[in-house]
Amino acid sequence: MRLQLVECIGYGGCGTVYSAKIVGAPDTRIVAVKKARTEDSVDNPLLRHEACAMIRLRGHPAIPQVCAYGRSQIYEYLALEKLGDDLGCLSQTPNGLTLQSLVAVAWQMLDAIEFIHFHGIVHCDIKPGNFLAGVGSDEGRVKLIDFGLARNYRNPSTHEHIQEEALQKHLGTYRYISLNMHLHLSPSRREDIESLAYTIAELLCGDLPWATHDTDDYFALKQLWSGSALCAGYPTVFGDFVDYARSLAFQETPDYDLWKRRFLSVAPGLEGQPLYDLSKPGPLVGKRLGDTAPSPNGPVLKQPRSDSSFGVFDWMSMGSCGERISVRPEDLIGDEQTTVRQNLEYIEEPFASKYKWEVMHPR
């Protein structure tokens, strides 16, 4: 089958996202196609890495369906199911976000992260923009995207937890990264949990108090805001979750079930695997009820300087569609080339067209 570009629907640091239709298909299904710059010298391209993570995690309702992958001399492509708006947009709908819907979303996000962690992977970029609304039969569910930074927190051979080490720069989005990631410590499950806590706090209060400041000040400002201050005026479970996330040790297993129960306890009527419903009335969230930052209980730590020459990826010159990125061998999720070849259809870009790609089974 063929995929034909419909329109550009987004940009990222590593490429561009298009909507595309399946030419000649009996239905009118639209897919999302991510396009990133690469070259022959890149052994472990980013989108192939992302595809492998999603293949490993198939079977959970929060993991989008991955359809096909392709690579030419200068680009790689990844076709996924097309989803709705991200959580930031959902919270700005005319009816607003109710406490009950927020609890359902928080439960789903935590359940998705638990599933990822169970499979030995940490996401490393949890934020509202990486949770999209499901559509059709998945209405009321959120889907987690962008697994480009995903990495193993257990040794794939021995299944032992990795050891904590210092990085030369942070991983993830500054607004949501953990305090330990600001200190350039290697990521484990606690980083995803703390980023989730900030994601929930932003949906709850409408913003994060450090978001309007210079990014160089984020680390110091995060230290000023305890969970109770950050989520003041709302049920205490949300602030408690922030403080809990910050207390986790590097190798500690988060108590996912405890926090899923605690979230549900503040939204009577929700049970099982709750779905959000933006049409259902109820108490609204999305407004900060406390604006005064508390004084620090102790000295405020300073953030280490980043070495821009080092990171989870090798950064090379950038074209119009993002960086040419090679994933470090130690961050690969198995034999990625074989995994993609055996599980996905292959997107082959015709030489003469900018807008059409041929999709066929690999030979």
UniProtKB/TrEMBL annotation:
PROSITE patterns noted in UniProt: PROTEIN_KINASE_DOM (PS50011)
One Pfam family this sequence matches: Pkinase
SMART domains given in the database record: S_TKc
Domain Protein kinase residue range list: 3-264
SUPFAM superfamilies in the record: Protein kinase-like (PK-like)
GO molecular function annotations of the record: ATP binding; protein kinase activity
Matches recorded under InterPro entries: CK1_Ser-Thr_kinase, Kinase-like_dom_sf, Prot_kinase_dom
PANTHER family (alphabetical): CASEIN KINASE-RELATED (PTHR11909)
Protein name: Protein kinase domain-containing protein
